[in-house]
């Protein structure tokens, strides 16, 4: 896998990614502090007239909407990622560490099936029935991510749990806690960290796309994705109300993906330096019993 | 090597189980509606006549198991149910939207493979140099961008500023092939994410294969570079990428919904979004089943392709 | 210099980060002769061998001359599968080389001629049924066939020199014998063979010239007969002595007895120890091992030998409770042990201990070795943490591991050191049965000798201990009290060690011992 990430200087990649992600992230985190009180509504889709970026489809100040509209995207994505792991971790770890085949099947099979449903479709389906509010979008996006996350946790943990180190601990009569958390948990930490980065970008994508399609948001919400959707009708008159939030979403997703990749690259490099990478050949036939 | 037939049988069985599960899941979700489903679906100010109509169409008075069996039996015969809003059969909706969506999807897949593999091979050949760094950074960056954001920016530049292409497909109806200019931006947007991921997979696979002991042995024995690249390394690089294509199916379906909404193309995605907006449950259910089955079938196809490329039979059912 | 030489290395020096991994190495190989480079890992023999191929480690600074006739060198790696492209059929792999040799104006003629050359090369490499083979993928071939295909590639290339890198490491005596035959057949064709190996048996059987290397330098270089009879350098003598040839009957007086064991009332030698009754182990639905009955008495050592895939590791894992998918019983002092580790009591866990083949993988890389070893005493014998650490340190020191070494993380210890630490971890449980699964494979001869000597001394010093050595190495098995032979999942023969080795009753054992004595 190392070949996946080589060829780019680490420092430069970090700086580049940070430069891209800094603006949308700062706006999302601190924007609401500077938004101030709402102005009285002006005419829809105007330029100038005391409004730096003009007005939107209902005559609100676009700049103020921008200041307010990043936070829901970022917070929902973070909450959804955390929630997905909150469910996926216990499922994946239990499935990997149990020696009862039935329990493993019971935990993993339903997820296999859920995987067959495209994530956006799943979200739309649930949305039709329940009309989730702003708080409902995070659990929905999390739900779409649980199958994949749980499978990843299980695969990583099962690999760690099948190593001779764990069998040696069993022969020593070690406690479950030391084996399951102290060793297996610690061994999968790096995989999880790498996955969390990738998953967060995927979640950002889903959150923004769902909001653009009107799922889990009010039709006039201060949200960058909603702004792109609602102000599209005025694209020819007042492009800023669409272009600025769209650019911010692009910068946020691109930047965070570049940033996580640079971090992953660094981690991989550190690991190679410690010489751990050479060790992979030792684990041989051991897995069979559990896997087939 | 595991015998192909038994592998195929197990893979098809899994596909069938997934199909059944999708049907059950779709049905269960509507059952989970709180309170009286008919009242819940009728909107904010339930009109008694509408509630009654919904109750009648969905046969809510009958027990759930009977309705499920009827619905499933109908699905098996191609009867997807009846719309709550228009009283038209759901299959008619599917028939309407199928053409444009199929056109978009097939154009995308047709361009996806050469573009993705080409970019990946190009980057791997110039590994570490400018071309590689440019391709790697751009594919990594664009890969995460939601289609709608990229789409409106492209529309702003190419339709609004430069005026080269129409901003939407409004007015062309389902006859998109007659207006190829209207297809350029939608297909471009639809391609953006899968191309990036495919290119990255191929690049990584090529670099790994070129660094492998078997490539070293081939070089040692004087086999020309081009032959090592395309005959020795590429098949090994494409195998994991082909498997990855299965996941691309998911993205494509998501992408189709967004792109149709963005460019106002009357395909299945638009039908679905309209039904979601009107809470027309039978239409949503029917489309969900159609999308689900397509995903299952395409996944099986992708697994078959992967198996063809990876004779070691690493793909498990 | 030498007019006959097909390849020559003069004053080769390879530096990585300012450190010389190979220094002042000169070498010349003649056609049809086999030159062996021997030495422990890190001695620079692989770097020297790869220099003949014009390949060096990345970032290396190279000085000196390497000259090869016509520049054609074949390469046979330790794992032949690694150099065979998994996605290409054997036919395609060989045609790629053959088509470069053929210069015929017409395309169809070129094809036909290339095909003829491929078939000829396969025949020369002793691969019958070539037609069928051409359509197979590398993974559908046995290890031996893969190695022969790699040799066929070298023959097809017209190589004047073939470099074979550890071609027998980790193989059983029969397979080794075949590798030896294959390589001498190559030499008989007038090709110079450069053999990189730390397997002295194979070197003895094959080499015409021996070059002994240590720490990147040539220690001694001589014709084979002279090297075996009159080694000039003390290091060479150490290396050659590192073959376990001591019979197990040496009086145990020279090894200090373990004080802890001395006072305890323990069952003496001859008590039943461990017994296996009607064992049938499965992987999934297939039964991979059948053992009707097998007994290891306390104070003795049983060697379980067999080729890879014969089921010997599965047997070991069944005994230790690591493989629970089996029928039949494993009895310790006539009481059955639960099949799974999870159902064994502390005493039962302590009684049967297991040492893994890959010592590095058997340690948690995040915790110091001493901490991990000490857990045996605290978990299985309820020792207080401080006592457990003291005991662990004493046992580790007794096995020759210095106090500062055992406080490091496993990553900072060598393979041999970790294997001794793993042994200490198992011994700390004061086991009644110790199962060692190929614990010396992958170690250099001197370390292997050291660990084997320590293992063989165990049942002599602890008369309540039964030692089970799982091995493919008949040299090691010769040290045991009894030998059991497994082939294709069946226990085909068992008996006293010398009897099995000298007068085997089963034809397979006879093959195995014949190959072994031919190599010794």
From TrEMBL, chain A:
The chain crosses the membrane at residues 12-35, 73-93, 113-144, 196-217, 237-260. Residues 74-260 form the ABC transmembrane type-1 domain. It is a multi-pass membrane protein. Keywords: Cell membrane, Membrane, Transmembrane, Transmembrane helix, Transport. It is found in: Cell membrane. Residues 270-292 are annotated as: Disordered. InterPro entries: BP-dependent_transpt_permease, MetI-like, MetI-like_sf. GO terms for biological process: transmembrane transport. Residues 270-284 have a biased composition (Basic and acidic residues). GO terms for cellular component: plasma membrane. This is Oligopeptide ABC transporter, permease. It comes from Streptomyces iranensis.
From TrEMBL, chain B:
Residues 98-306 form the ABC transmembrane type-1 domain. It comes from the Bacteria. InterPro entries: BPD_transp_1_N, MetI-like, MetI-like_sf. The chain crosses the membrane at residues 102-123, 135-164, 176-196, 251-277, 283-302. Keywords: Cell membrane, Membrane, Transmembrane, Transmembrane helix, Transport. Its main location: membrane. It is found in: Cell membrane. This is Peptide/nickel transport system permease protein.
From TrEMBL, chain C:
Keywords: ATP-binding, Cell inner membrane, Cell membrane, Membrane, Nucleotide-binding, Translocase, Transport. GO terms for molecular function: ATP binding; ATP hydrolysis activity. SMART domains: AAA (SM00382). Pfam families: ABC_tran, oligo_HPY. Residues 245-254 have a biased composition (Pro residues). The keyword Cell membrane applies. Residues 7-240, 274-513 form the ABC transporter domain. The keyword Cytoplasm does not apply. It is found in: Cell membrane. GO terms for cellular component: plasma membrane. InterPro entries: AAA+_ATPase, ABC_Ni/Peptide_Import, ABC_transporter-like_ATP-bd, ABC_transporter-like_CS, Oligopep_ABC_C, P-loop_NTPase. Gene3D superfamilies: P-loop containing nucleotide triphosphate hydrolases. Residues 236-275 are annotated as: Disordered. It is a peripheral membrane protein. PANTHER family: ATPASE AAA-TYPE CORE DOMAIN-CONTAINING PROTEIN, OLIGOPEPTIDE TRANSPORT ATP-BINDING PROTEIN APPD. Belongs to the ABC transporter superfamily. This is Peptide ABC transporter, ATP-binding protein. It comes from Streptomyces iranensis.
């Amino acid at each position: 896998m190392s070949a996946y990430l080589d060829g780019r200087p680490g420092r430069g990649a970090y700086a580049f990614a940070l430069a891209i992600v800094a603006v949308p992230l700062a706006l999302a985190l601190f924007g609401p502090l500077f938004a101030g009180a709402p102005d009285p509504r002006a005419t829809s889709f105007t330029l100038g007239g005391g409004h730096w970026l003009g007005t939107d489809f209902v005559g609100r100040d676009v700049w103020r909407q921008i200041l307010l509209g990043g936070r829901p995207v970022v917070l929902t994505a973070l909450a959804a990622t955390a929630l997905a792991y909150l469910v996926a971790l216990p499922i994946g770890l239990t499935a990997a560490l149990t020696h009862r085949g039935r329990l493993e099947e019971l935990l993993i099979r339903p997820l296999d099936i859920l995987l067959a449903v495209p994530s956006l479709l799943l979200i739309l389906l649930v949305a039709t029935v329940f009309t989730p509010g702003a708080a409902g979008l995070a659990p929905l996006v999390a739900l779409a991510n649980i199958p994949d996350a749980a499978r990843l946790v299980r695969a990583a943990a099962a690999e760690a749990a099948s190593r001779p180190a764990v069998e040696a601990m069993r022969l020593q009569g070690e406690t479950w806690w030391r084996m399951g958390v102290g060793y297996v948990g610690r061994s999968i930490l790096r995989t999880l960290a790498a996955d969390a980065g990738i998953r967060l970008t995927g979640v950002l994508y889903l959150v923004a796309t769902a909001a653009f399609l009107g799922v889990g948001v009010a039709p006039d919400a201060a949200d960058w994705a909603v702004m792109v959707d609602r102000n599209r009708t005025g694209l020819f008159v007042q492009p800023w109300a669409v272009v600025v939030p769209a650019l911010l979403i692009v910068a946020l997703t691109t930047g965070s993906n570049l940033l996580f990749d640079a971090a992953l690259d660094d981690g991989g490099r550190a690991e190679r330096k410690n010489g751990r990478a050479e060790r992979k050949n030792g684990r041989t036939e051991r897995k069979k019993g559990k896997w087939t | 090597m595991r015998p192909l037939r038994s592998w195929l049988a197990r893979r098809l069985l899994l596909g069938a189980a997934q199909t059944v599960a999708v049907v059950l899941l779709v049905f269960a979700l509507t059952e989970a509606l709180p309170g009286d489903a008919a009242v819940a679906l009728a909107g904010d100010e339930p009109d008694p006549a509408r509630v009654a109509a919904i109750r009648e169409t969905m046969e809510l008075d009958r027990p759930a198991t009977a309705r499920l069996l009827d619905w499933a039996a109908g699905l098996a015969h191609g009867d997807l149910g009846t719309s709550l809003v228009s009283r038209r059969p759901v299959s008619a909706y599917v028939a309407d939207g199928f053409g444009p969506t199929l056109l978009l999807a097939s154009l995308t897949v047709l361009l996806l493979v050469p573009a993705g593999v080409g970019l990946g091979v190009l980057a791997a050949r110039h590994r570490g140099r400018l071309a590689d760094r440019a391709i790697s950074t751009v594919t990594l960056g664009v890969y995460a961008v939601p289609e709608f954001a990229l789409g409106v920016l492209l529309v702003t530049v190419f339709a609004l500023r430069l005026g080269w292409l129409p901003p939407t497909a409004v007015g062309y109806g389902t006859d998109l092939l007659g207006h190829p200019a209207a297809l350029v931006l939608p297909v471009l947007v639809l391609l953006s994410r899968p191309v990036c991921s495919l290119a990255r997979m191929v690049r990584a696979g090529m670099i790994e294969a070129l660094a492998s002991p078997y490539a070293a042995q081939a070089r040692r024995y004087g086999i020309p570079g081009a032959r090592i690249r395309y005959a020795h390394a590429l098949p090994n690089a494409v195998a994991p990428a082909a498997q990855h294509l299965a996941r691309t199916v998911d993205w494509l379906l998501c992408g189709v919904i967004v792109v149709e909404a963005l460019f106002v193309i009357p395909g299945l995605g638009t039908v679905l979004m309209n039904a979601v907006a009107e809470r027309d449950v039978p239409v949503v259910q029917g489309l969900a089943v159609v999308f689900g089955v397509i995903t299952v079938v395409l996944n099986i196809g992708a697994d078959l392709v992967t198996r063809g490329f990876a004779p070691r039979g690493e793909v498990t059912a | 210099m030498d007019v006959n030489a097909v390849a020559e290395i003069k004053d080769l020096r390879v530096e990585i980060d300012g450190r010389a991994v190979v220094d002042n190495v000169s070498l010349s190989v003649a056609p049809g002769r086999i030159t062996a480079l021997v030495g422990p890992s890190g001695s620079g023999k692989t770097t020297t061998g790869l220099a003949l191929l014009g390949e060096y480690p990345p970032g290396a600074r190279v000085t000196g001359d390497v000259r090869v006739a016509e520049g054609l060198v074949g390469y046979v790696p330790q794992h032949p599968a690694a150099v065979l492209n998994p996605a290409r059929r054997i036919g395609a792999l060989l045609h790629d080389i053959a088509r470069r040799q053929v210069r015929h104006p017409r395309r169809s003629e070129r094809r036909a001629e290339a095909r003829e050359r491929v078939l000829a090369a396969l025949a020369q490499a002793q691969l019958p049924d070539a037609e069928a083979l051409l359509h197979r993928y590398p993974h559908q071939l046995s290890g031996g066939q893969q190695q022969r295909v790699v040799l066929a590639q070298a023959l097809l290339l017209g190589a004047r020199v073939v470099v074979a890198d550890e071609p027998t490491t980790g193989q059983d005596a029969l397979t080794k014998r075949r590798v030896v035959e294959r390589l001498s057949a190559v030499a008989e064709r007038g090709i110079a063979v450069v053999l990189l190996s730390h397997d002295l048996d194979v070197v003895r059987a094959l080499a015409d010239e021996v070059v002994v290397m240590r720490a990147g330098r040539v220690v001694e270089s001589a014709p084979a007969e002279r090297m075996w009879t009159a080694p000039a350098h003390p290091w060479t003598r150490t290396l050659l002595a590192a073959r376990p040839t001591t019979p197990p009957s040496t009086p145990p007086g020279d090894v200090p007895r373990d004080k802890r064991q001395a006072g305890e009332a323990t069952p003496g030698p001859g008590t039943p120890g461990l017994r296996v009754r009607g064992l049938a182990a499965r992987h999934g639905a297939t039964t991979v091992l059948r053992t009707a009955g097998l007994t290891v008495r306390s104070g003795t050592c049983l060697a379980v030998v067999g080729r890879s895939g014969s089921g010997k590791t599965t047997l070991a894992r069944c005994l230790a409770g690591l493989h629970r998918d089996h029928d039949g019983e494993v009895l310790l002092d006539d009481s059955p042990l639960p099949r799974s580790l999870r159902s064994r009591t502390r005493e039962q866990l302590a009684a049967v201990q297991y040492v893994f083949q890959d010592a590095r993988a058997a340690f948690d890389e995040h915790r110091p070795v001493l901490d991990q070893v000490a857990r045996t005493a605290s978990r299985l014998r309820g020792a207080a943490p401080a006592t457990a650490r003291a005991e662990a340190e004493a046992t580790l020191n007794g096995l020759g591991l210095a106090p500062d070494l055992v406080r490091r993380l496993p990553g900072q210890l060598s393979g041999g050191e970790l294997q001794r630490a793993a042994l200490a971890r198992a011994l700390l449980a004061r086991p009644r049965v110790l199962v060692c699964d190929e614990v010396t494979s992958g170690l250099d001869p001197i370390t292997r000798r050291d660990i084997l000597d320590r293992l063989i001394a165990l049942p002599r010093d602890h008369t309540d201990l039964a030692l089970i050595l799982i091995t493919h190495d008949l040299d090691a098995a010769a040290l045991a009290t009894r030998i059991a032979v497994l082939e294709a999942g069946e226990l085909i023969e068992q008996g006293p060690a010398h009897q099995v080795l000298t007068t085997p009753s089963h034809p397979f054992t006879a093959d195995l011992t014949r190959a072994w004595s031919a190599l010794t």
